[in-house]
Every structure is written in C-alpha cells, then in structure tokens.
Amino acid sequence: MGNTMQNRVALVTGGSRGIGAAVALRLAADGHDVAITFQRNTSRADEIVERIRQSGRRAVAFQADSADPDAVVAAVNGAAAAFGRLDILVNNAALFLAGPIDQVGPDDLDRTVAVNIRAPFVAAQAAVRHLTAGGRIINIGSNVAVRAAFPGFALYSMSKTALVGLTKALGRELGPRAITVNLVHPGATDTEMNPADGPMAGTINEVTALGHYADPADIAAVVAFLASPDACYVTGAAINADGGFTA
User: Fold this and answer.
1) Catalytic site residue 233?
2) Catalytic member of 156, 184, 204, 242
3) Which of 178, 72, 88 has its CA nearest to residue 130?
4) What three-state secondary structure class fits 78?
5) CA-CA distances (angstroms) from residue 195 to 22, 148, 190?
6) Residues 164-211: pLDDT tens digits?
7) Model confidence pTM above 0.85
C-alpha cells in the first residue's frame, strides 16, 4: 500500500472511545489524517486527538450529538474543511438501548432511530459531496442484526439491520463513482459499554466460536482493510467480525 495511504482523510463518528477510538488510531497509524466526533467527553476526545498527533498525523475533534442531523452534517463538512478533503467516512457512533419490547417507550424508539439510522444516512449524504474516486463509506453494524440470540434486542437489532439496506443501496449508487460502501458487524467487544468481564460475558463467550470477546483493535483491523486500496473491489458487503457468533 505504501504511499497510496498517505495524506488521505478519515472521519470517524463516535471516535473518542471504544471501537471508534481504536478505528481512529488504526487509520492514523496507516497514514491517514483523522477527524472524530464525540458527544460530551471533551477530555477523552482531546486524548485521542493528541495520540493521533503524536503518531505524526493531523487530527481534529468535533462535538456533535448524532441525534442532531445538523451537527452531524456540520462535522462532515468541518472535517473536509479542516483538511481540505475527505476520503473515508466511518459511521460508528451508536446508541444501545435494550429491554422487553413492551417497555420500549416512544422516546427510546425515536432517539435510537435518530442516532443509529438517520445519522449514518445524513453523514453519508454530506460525505458524498466531498468523496472522490477511491472514497470509502464504512458503516458499523452489530452481530445482533444477523443473529438475535438474546431477548430484549428488538430495538437495537432493528436499527442495525437498517444499515444493511443503506450499505447495499449506497454501494450500488456510488459504484459508478468508484466509491465503496461496506458494513462491519462486530461481535461482543471489550469496551466500557460491554466489558469482557461483565455479567453477560460468560453466556456470550459460550455461543461465540472463538470463545472470547474481541479487542477493539480487532474490529479496527477489519475497518482498516476496507479503507485500504486492497479492498477496492469490495462494496455492498457485510463482514461479520464476531468471532463466529453468527457461524
């Protein structure tokens, strides 16, 4: 890949922690300048920005609640303005709400749809105005969109399943422009929201072929491949990076 990866610009939504932070750091290590969005924690976003800069790449963070479409669009346009271009959009920011369907309120439904479905759509809509040939849109889904193994996941599974349709349709639409669109379905990943020593870990490990949680860097490696020139002929695809949970 060499210099073909240099001086490209990526925006990672929800890039201050968990999988998003790992993706941002990996893309920087691969030679990209990186913008991230974050919701509230300025100090954590600043830490990721500093780590990227220490690696020799440029970085910037935008505070944006993904439930606010104007903020999402502003972050996309801000990233392109800050670096003079935009090559890669990683739609990672998401909201996880679980519980029996008869306990899901209308506010839960509306916010989940806003963050997990509307935000990736409007981010992609804004990004395509900047992306050129070789551009990438990479959506982060979930293994529970493929296999709803546990009760109480109807709302979250529905929201992540919507990304399948978005990915396929955009892959078809943007193919003539040599812009690829792909989807990564992570399995259980060791983050603050779902720690590898949490109360569900034992059960999840039992139904995962590899028998353990992913490290965020494992998911970032799949995203990095899709962002690279090596994935130039992959589009409209959904890749399960779930340790065999859906096998």
Assistant:
1) no
2) 156
3) 88
4) helix
5) 15, 19, 5
6) 999 999 999 999 999 999 999 999 999 998 999 999 999 999 999 999
7) yes
